[in-house]
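At this stage, I wrote out one protein's amino acid sequence and its backbone structure tokens, and that material follows here:
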Amino acid sequence: MRNVIVAANWKMHTTPADAGELARTIGARSRTPGVLRVICPPFVCLAAVRDALVGPDVVAADGNGVAVGAQNVHHEAAGAYTGEVAATMLVGLASWVIVGHSERRRDAAETDDLIGRKLRAARAAGLRAILCVGEQLDERQAGRAESVVERQLGGALAGTDPGLFSMTDAQAAAASAVGPWLTIAYEPVWAIGTGLTARGSDAAAMATAIRVTLARLGFPDAGEGVPVLYGGSVTSASIDEFLAEPAIDGALVGGASLKPDEMAGIVARAGLTAAARRAQAGIVAGPTN
């Protein structure tokens, strides 16, 4: 059964002075079992958020706390790269990292090849990666949405051994608490901050296309074990439509992730999805899920 994941991308918001308290508040208000929660603050806030999330007040009934993720990573392990952060530098500060976000593609001109190198660097350092893919409005209107996402996946994963993201039985069991090595976030760029909205059926169709592509690339279990998140201006009011789709496994949340009540609402709804999936699979929830 795939993980249900809610990841918060704080983007360029918060400071070390206020990030810890915000993270602790969100963690305490979102203690819903069955959901993997990840908070991705700015680099300068990673330590503050990590330290704020160590207490028992953020732990859900299934024993899961809140993981910390970075918003980006460099593709090299070290070198003369002023202002960059290597995956090995994140170890101990974060256990997840976002790779290939649409804003990085737009503002930093990141290519699929570069994103693939970042993905492999993250995996080599033992970080769990959220790989972002998604199309622009003109690409969707031209009927090329799925082909664009397929190209992004193929470009980022070209030359990568899919076995890097496979897990042993023991690792798969642990993934219920720590997450898989690879998660895909579908970002319909045209629905982010534009007033336009994607439908649950749009996201579900893209999730299916993503897993078909992963299967073609040789991923274990034909890609069925890889969670796919929706990441298009998610709120507590809109998340239900997406979580109602069996192909969607949670959300990558932007602006709403800075609001504790919104995050609590999103995680609560994700918890209902997780509980329904466990019931359908005949899994009895326990202290460690």
